[in-house]
Write a structure and sequence with these properties.
This is CRAL-TRIO domain-containing protein. This protein has 202 residues and is α/β, with parallel strands linked by helices. It is built from eight helices and five strands; from the N terminus they run αββαβαααβαβαα. α2 packs parallel to α4.
Length: 202
């Protein structure tokens, strides 16, 4: 991540985009920290600002009780939203021990093949075995509602749109066809590369 704005401007941007939002509860009554990956401007935010924001604005609101994380990966692009492995590791290491212990589950919505492979390779390194074991992949929103109180969570429209696309193009889940909107209806090409999902790792 490279900062292009002052720390105060970056904090205001985090607030404005509502990247981290505590809202609603899961089926067991635990608070939910919702994170929208597409809203994360990795090129603009510095690691230190993100860590400070979490420490001052997010963690205190979670209190000392158990909670869950809802991470929405829909439409994430590596070049725009992925802060890098070292940045993720630094942010994770700055999370207080009591917060890590109170985290019960991470619901990862619309993971895609490449993000699954990335986490299978680096997940334990980045998150540690304990947190990695709490990761729950959620391919469809209907499956999410089995764990989360639907009427208490705000989900952006583009997530619902992508979920609907997956119903008609299920192979996108497994990276067997491109999910880039510009290829819909495009002529077939000979290269086998076009058969694979271009969804970015994050």
């Amino acid at each position: 991540m490279c900062a292009q704005a002052s720390p105060s401007e970056q904090e205001q941007l985090i607030e404005k985009l509502e990247i981290f939002k505590i809202r609603g509860r899961d089926k067991r009554g635990r608070k939910i920290l919702r994170i929208i990956g597409k809203y994360f401007p990795a090129r603009t935010l510095s690691v230190d600002v993100v860590k400070k924001y979490l420490e001052e604005k997010v963690f205190p609101k979670l209190g000392k009780k158990q909670f869950s994380v809802l991470y929405v990966h829909t439409d994430v692009e590596r070049s725009e939203n992925f802060p890098g492995i070292s940045a993720l590791r630094s942010i994770y290491e700055a999370i207080p021990v009591n917060v890590k212990e109170n985290l019960e589950a991470v619901y990862f919505v619309h993971p895609g093949l490449q993000s699954r492979l990335f986490l299978a390779t680096f997940g334990r390194l980045l998150l540690g075995g304990g947190l990695y074991g709490k990761l729950r992949y959620v391919n469809r929103l209907d499956l999410l509602w089995e764990h989360v109180r639907r009427n208490e969570i705000e989900i952006p429209d583009f997530v619902y749109d992508h979920d609907e696309e997956l119903e008609y193009r299920p192979m996108m889940d497994y990276g067997l066809e491109s999910d880039h909107p510009r290829v819909y209806g495009a002529p077939a090409v000979d290269s086998p590369v076009s058969m694979y999902s271009m969804r970015c790792i994050s």
